[in-house]
Design a protein that fits this description.
The structure is a single chain. By secondary structure, this protein is an alpha+beta fold. Among the domains are: 19-293, Glycosyltransferase; 304-395, Phosphorylase Kinase, domain 1. The chain is built from 24 helices and eleven strands. The strands form three sheets. A six-stranded mixed beta sheet has the order 1-5-6-4-3-2, with helices on one face. It has a three-stranded antiparallel beta sheet with strand order 7-9-10, covered by helices on one side. Helix 5 packs parallel to helix 7 and helix 7 (142-154) runs parallel beside helix 9 (190-202). The longest helix is centred in the C-terminal third of the chain and has 20 residues, at 638-657.
């Protein structure tokens, strides 16, 4: 019986093991230690070092690594309580303690560490019911039982803990289907099965379970593609395949699965050009894979403490993070600190932050916010024993709630989500910010999520479920933001915040969506599911004329808001539109903006919140606020500024489309 959810393996997928490329792939991260992807993996580095070393050892390439550096790094992470941390200055944890012991065992030098200290550390983490906490903060999980037992087993000190109680807790985690969960009553999962089976094997208690029942549950994890999943509702991947196959091997039932098909699945997950494995065939090497391999160099100068910056005021908050204005305590330089929210993360660093960092690494441009560094706070009970990470950006004094800019990112889609993502420095330079939902372009197999772009700026193709969209989605956002410069509020602001209401507003402004005006639209997934208004005439120029007196500006906005994305004006043609070449010509705004010594974010915050960081978010500057005082002064003379920023923005889009 095969699992229902599965992947497709292409005929062109690799069919031989690219061992040499994989070894080179692991080694290359010693040369990439200045990349931000590498830096933020610090909380997982010890485990990453072990897995990389284990892979190199399998490939007979362990001698290519400087053993002295590795051993010194591991020993530097042992704390006075005997436990090991992921890296220097982090708190000890059972997972990293096991990884450290495994590394030293690999090099046959466990005698160099404080063995008695390790044993005492593990003993103190055992609870009355036999379970183990991962660290002093007290999280209980069957994985930590495995870490504890494996650590002491490697040191031949297993009898120093209460083995009977440890086994008893693991057996309580067993479910009716034969599998094991994180704790009693939780659902079965292949990762937990491996950990619990490992505990029972090391303590010689495998005879206490129904091996065949468990092996049958594990064998059912194989999909038709050959890959193994971790739970019935999951897709197969190489990670799950390891846990399941290893468990079956321990149970002596590895012949119960089709190993030939599994081999083909794993080989198909290889990255042929540079080495490495993706989760599944055809996927890119992404966040979780980087979490496992970008931590390898043990000599990296560790990530800076966020306390080097003094927080001044909270200037923004969104779904994926908080933003503070801050000052470098040493140099006095003003920066923006973006706190990465990790409260709901269960698999490491958030993928949105990983995407943002990777894109900012590739895109270096005067109109993109500059990522200066990544900082962290130390782990504490306040954040459940985890570090808190901050992205440090060059500070921009204003956003574009009332000005234009709309720039395409050369390597990404979906960046233009709303005017608040477009910032302006006091020198009048436009900067794009927040690349968390941007995605790399894939021209060969374009298939993206359509849940991008703030609803009010979302183009009709996304609302109708298109997943093979193009850079035209950001051109639509350009039209919305350009019009907003004159109207001072979003031109299609859905009060109900629903796709149905948004598509209605688009139809009322741009006309009915029909195959006549947009050939092929009837094939989009949601065309027949949403209620599309009929007999609506196109009224873009008519509706905006009371606000926009410039006929050329109206014509450009009308072209930007074309329903059919294949007919929508592109960045190059927009840049050559007559609007930008008529008098008055665009001029920089640095003279006007540089005279304002207070940033817009601070000015719009209530007076009672100035002078320090507040827990509550300040009033957010939005384009539909009353334009008075400070904001009016910023927006005056905006006819010339509009052209200047539009040129910057559209020029940047042209780079990307090229």
């Amino acid at each position: 019986m095969f699992a229902l959810k599965d992947v497709i393996i292409k005929e062109s997928a690799p069919k031989e093991l690219l061992l040499e490329k994989h070894c080179d792939f692991l080694q290359q991260f010693q040369q990439k230690k200045n990349e931000f992807e590498y830096i933020f993996a610090e909380p997982f580095r010890m485990s990453g070092v072990f897995w990389c070393l284990a892979a190199l050892d399998i490939g007979n390439s362990l001698d290519k690594v400087n053993a002295k550096d590795v051993i010194e790094f591991v020993l530097s992470c042992q704390h006075s309580n005997g436990g090991f941390s992921s890296s220097v200055d982090n708190d000890p944890h059972l997972l990293h303690t096991l990884s450290a012991v495994q590394i030293l065992t690999l090099y046959n030098c466990t005698n160099l560490m404080n063995i008695d200290g390790v044993v005492e550390y593990v003993k103190k983490l055992q609870q009355e019911d036999g379970s183990f906490a991962g660290d002093e903060w007290g999280e209980i999980d069957s994985r930590f039982s495995f870490c504890a037992v494996a650590t002491l087993s490697l040191l031949n000190r297993l009898n120093d803990i209460d083995v009977r109680k440890a086994v008893g807790f693991v057996l309580k985690c067993r479910n009716f289907d034969g599998g094991f969960g994180t704790r009693p009553g939780s659902e079965s999962h292949a990762g937990q099965v491996y950990c619990c089976v490992g505990v029972l094997a090391m303590t010689k208690h495998l005879n206490t379970i129904d091996v065949d029942q468990l092996a049958w549950w594990l064998a059912e994890r194989q999909c038709k593609s050959g890959g193994l999943n971790g739970r019935p509702e999951k897709l197969p991947d190489v990670c799950y395949s390891w846990w399941v196959l290893a468990s079956l091997k321990i149970l002596g039932r590895h012949e119960w699965i089709d190993k030939k098909c599994l081999r083909e699945f794993i080989l198909a997950c290889q990255e042929e050009e540079n080495g490495g494995f993706s989760d599944r065939p055809g996927d890119e090497i992404g966040g979780r894979e980087y979490n496992g391999i970008t931590k390898f160099d043990c000599t990296f100068p560790y990530i800076a403490d966020v306390n080097k910056y003094e927080k001044i005021i909270k200037i923004g908050q969104g779904t994926f993070g908080e933003v503070f204005k801050a000052r470098d305590r040493k140099t006095g330089k003003i920066v923006a600190l973006k706190k990465i929210l990790m409260e709901n993360e269960k698999e490491g660093f958030p993928i949105t932050a990983i995407r943002e960092i990777r894109i900012l690494q590739k895109v270096r441009h005067q109109n993109v916010t500059e990522l200066l560094e990544v900082c962290r706070s130390k782990a504490s009970s306040y954040n459940r024993g985890r570090s808190t990470f901050y992205l440090v950006f060059a500070f921009c004094e204003h956003d574009l709630a009332g000005l234009l800019s709309n720039v395409h990112v050369k390597f990404s889609l979906g960046e233009i989500k709303e005017a608040a993502n477009v910032l302006i420095t006091k020198s009048g330079v436009l900067k794009l910010a927040d690349f968390g939902l941007a995605r790399p372009l894939n021209k060969q197999n374009p298939r993206y999520t359509n849940r991008v772009v703030t609803l009010w700026y979302r183009p009709p193709e996304l609302l109708l479920g298109d997943r093979k969209y193009t850079t035209a989605i950001d051109i639509w956002g350009a039209g919305c933001i350009m019009a907003e410069m004159w109207t001072r509020s979003p031109i299609m602001q859905a009060s109900g915040n629903t796709e149905q209401h948004q598509i209605m507003l688009i139809s009322q402004l741009c006309g009915s969506i029909t195959p006549t005006v947009w050939p092929g639209v009837e094939h989009l997934p949601l065309f027949h599911m949403l209620k599309l208004p009929v007999d609506q005439k196109r009224r873009v120029k008519e509706r905006l004329k009371p606000y926009i007196r410039d006929a050329q500006a109206l014509d450009l906005i009308d072209a930007l808001l074309t329903l059919d994305p294949t007919k929508r004006i592109d960045a190059d043609r927009a840049l050559n539109h007559q609007f930008f070449w008529q008098d008055p010509m665009p001029v920089p705004l640095h003279r006007m903006l540089s005279q304002h010594t207070t940033s817009m974010f601070e000015y719009l915050a209530p007076v009672r919140r100035r002078g320090g960081v507040q827990n509550n978010a300040p009033v957010q500057p939005t384009s539909h606020m009353r334009m008075e005082s400070y904001q009016d002064r910023i927006i005056e003379n905006c006819n010339k500024g509009t052209g200047y920023y539009a040129v910057s923005f559209l020029g940047w889009i042209t780079l990307r489309e090229g």
